[in-house]
Amino acid sequence: MPNIPLFADCSIVLLAGGRGQRMGGQDKGWVSWQGNALIEHMQRVVRPLTNDLIISCNRNHARYQPLADQLVSDPDHDFTGPLVGIISALKVARHPYLIVLPCDAPRIDQALLMQLYQQAGERPAMFKHQGHWQPLFSIIAKAQLSALQELWEAGERSPKHALLQLNPVALHCADDEKRLANFNDPSVLQQPLLIKETLC
Questions:
Q1: In sequence order, which ranges of the chain are alpha helices (DSSP H)?
Q2: Is 86 left (phi over 0), alpha (psi -120 to 50) or beta?
Q3: Disulfide engineering: 104 pairs with which of 94, 130, 183, 200, CB 3.0-4.6 Å?
Q4: pLDDT higher than 60, residue 186
Q5: What does CATH list as the number for 10-189?
Q6: What is the DSSP string of 22-75?
């Protein structure tokens, strides 16, 4: 009997398509931390949640493929930013909702993602941390694809600004919340792993 994902009507995308400039141009998903690549930490947490795991990447496709159900890449292969990765994932998502996550937040856990999943609806939902919206920790209805596509074609490139135009729901978290931390600088790779709370 096949395993039933916890989020049965939700796809998940891990965004790994950036240039990795603050990591010296490395493919950030494959930067090692605590003995595993960042993308492997993320995949381990989200794999039980969905049967449609998408990775957005622009290089090392053969390495990413075993970790995902689908891969997407920027249409112009020019590292045009995370918004186009989100749009590309919405185009292929097999479920009505898409959870958006970066590839470099290995402290994320299933309990935090459950908070996102519980906000699935017509409006996007985003975490808000220390007064700042976190568009790469969000859930978006596939029905919003056309609106985001129109914003992209009008020149919008910021995921935050695009999602704010869709009247998002805010999920507030504590100022000292560590699970949303992005590992986008080599210095943070020395930080320890937090104990993760799981749902399965």
A1: 38-46, 61-64, 82-92, 110-117, 145-153, 159-164
A2: alpha
A3: 183
A4: no
A5: 3.90.550.10
A6: GGTT--GGG-EETTEEHHHHHHHHHGGG-S-EEEEESS-HHHHGGG-SEEE--T
Per-residue pLDDT tens digits for 33-42: 888 999 999 9
Confidence of residue 89 (pLDDT cuts 50, 70, 90): very high
CB 124 within 8 A of CB 163: yes
C-alpha closest to that of 40 among 24, 63, 8: 63
Pull the structure tokens for residue 160. Answer: 């935050």
Query: Which residue from 188, 160, 181, 172 is spatially nearest to 32, judged by alpha carbons?
Result: 188
Burial label, 84 (beta-carbon count in 10 A; 0-12, 13-18, 19+): buried
4-30 confidence digits (pLDDT tens): 889 999 999 999 986 544 545 678 899
Q: In the chain, what are the domain boundaries? A: 10-189
